[in-house]
Specification:
The structure is a single chain. By secondary structure, the protein is of the alpha+beta class. It has helices at 22-30, 32-38, 126-152, and strands at 3-6, 12-18, 44-51, 58-65, 70-81, 85-92, 101-110, 113-121. 28% of the residues lie in helices and 43% in strands. An eight-stranded antiparallel sheet has the order 1-2-8-7-6-5-4-3. The radius of gyration is 15 Å and the shape is globular.
């Protein structure tokens, strides 16, 4: 695994390499049944995801946290270039995480592995950026574990 996280300028950037083909990584980002397997913070016990994968289409991820509180993320797809690029808005429905932000993912494949360049921002405050960095890192660790488990089968 290669991982690099930067939160400068209230923009989160993460570089990761996954042991999976690019088409599969893209599916994990865009199909609700796959998104529900790895999205979410470390203190989440349940998630329901819906997605309308088209430019202008929306997604919704409703999470139940360990303390039984809910956390709903909504967004709109801005750019889709399957299987290399995806961009969408990101907003916490109750506004707890500040203003709407934009997530951009670029995927490149080399030797059956996929390098992901991930960007999320611009956040209102540096601590929001850092907090999302922690959450995304947990999610990407889950995603990596799914790929590693599949590779062992």
């Amino acid at each position: 695994m290669d991982a690099n996280t930067d939160v400068s300028n209230r923009v989160l950037t993460i570089e990761r390499t996954f042991n999976a083909p690019r088409a599969l990584v893209f599916k994990m980002w865009t199909q609700p049944e796959h998104m529900a397997r790895w999205w979410g913070c470390g203190y989440m016990k349940h998630i329901e995801v819906s997605a309308d994968l088209r430019v202008g289409g929306q997604f919704r991820a409703a999470m139940t946290l360990d303390d039984d509180s809910s956390h709903v993320i909504v967004g709109k797809y801005l750019e889709i270039d399957q299987p290399t690029h995806l961009s969408f808005t990101w907003w916490v429905e109750n506004g707890a995480a500040g203003s709407e932000t934009v997530v951009t993912i670029d995927l490149s494949e080399d030797g059956g592995k996929t390098h992901m360049s991930f960007r999320h921002g611009t956040f209102d405050e540096a601590d929001m950026c850092a907090g999302h960095g922690e959450g995304w890192t947990v999610s990407f660790d889950r995603l990596e574990a799914l790929f590693n488990a599949s590779a062992k089968q």
